[in-house]
Structures are given as C-alpha cells and as structure tokens.
Design brief:
By secondary structure, the chain is mostly beta strands. It has an eight-stranded antiparallel barrel with strand order 1-2-3-4-5-6-7-8. The chain has one helix spanning 2-9, and strands at residues 39-42, 45-51, 54-58, 68-76, 80-85, 90-95, 97-103, 110-117. It is 6% helix and 42% strand. It is built from one helix and eight strands; from the N terminus they run αββββββββ. The chain has one domain (2-13, 40-117). Strand 6 and strand 7 (97-103) form a beta hairpin.
Length: 124
C-alpha cells in the first residue's frame, strides 16, 4: 500500500516491484529519530528506502527492463545519504538538491540529477 501511495503521489503509474534479496547486506546504519529522508525525487524517477537499509531507484526511462536498480545504504549524516550498488560497484550520494555518483572506490563524484527529499504520504 505504501508503494502504491508513493506512485500515486508522484503521479507515476507503474507496477514495479522491488527484490530486496538482491541487495548486499551490510551492518546497521544509525538513523536518528525523526530523520525523514526515505524518498529522494528527481525529474524522471526517485530513490526510495524500502526498509532494512535497502533502497531502490525507479526510473523507467533509464532502466527499460525492470525500471529499478537496488542499493544498500552505507552511511548517512546531516547533509547526505550514501548508497552502494554492489552489482555495478556504484556509489551514490543523495543530498538536498543533487545526486552524485562514482564507479569504483576512488576518483571524483559526478553530479547526475537535481532533486530533493520528499516525505512519503501516510498509509491509511
């Protein structure tokens, strides 16, 4: 129901399902009480926290087969949430205003999307 409300609230019609079993398991990431950063939206898609430190990116323009890519949250602080996709060795940093990415463990991060944090609607 939460995912359906999210799709409707963003004006997107999709039946994409996530498969958390594909994500890499990591240790607990401390999340402060009241931290509402569970949804980061940009023009053609979004990143959503699907629980247990796992995130999914949904973007049907970029990922034609399933429309989604899976990530694990590896860290967060007051200014950013950092995600990792083991299958592509891809690190993503989500901040208020932009998304940056890097392949591999070194080198500069590249800005890809402008976006923002959004609060999920409450399930009824």
């Amino acid at each position: 129901m939460k995912r359906l409300l999210l799709f409707l609230s963003l004006g997107l019609l999709t039946t994409a399902l996530s498969n958390p079993a594909k994500a890499q398991s990591v240790g607990p990431v401390a999340v402060e009480a009241g931290d509402t950063r569970t949804l980061w939206v940009y023009e053609s898609g979004w990143f959503e926290d699907i629980g247990d430190h796992q995130w999914v990116e949904l973007n049907h323009e970029l990922y034609n087969d399933s429309g989604e890519m899976l990530f694990v949250e590896v860290s967060r602080n007051d200014s950013q949430v950092t995600l990792f996709d083991k299958s592509r060795n891809l690190t993503v940093i989500l901040t208020e205003g932009k998304m940056k990415w890097r392949v591999g463990e070194s080198g500069d991060f590249n800005e890809l999307y402008q976006g923002r944090w959004k609060i999920l609607p409450k399930a009824r």
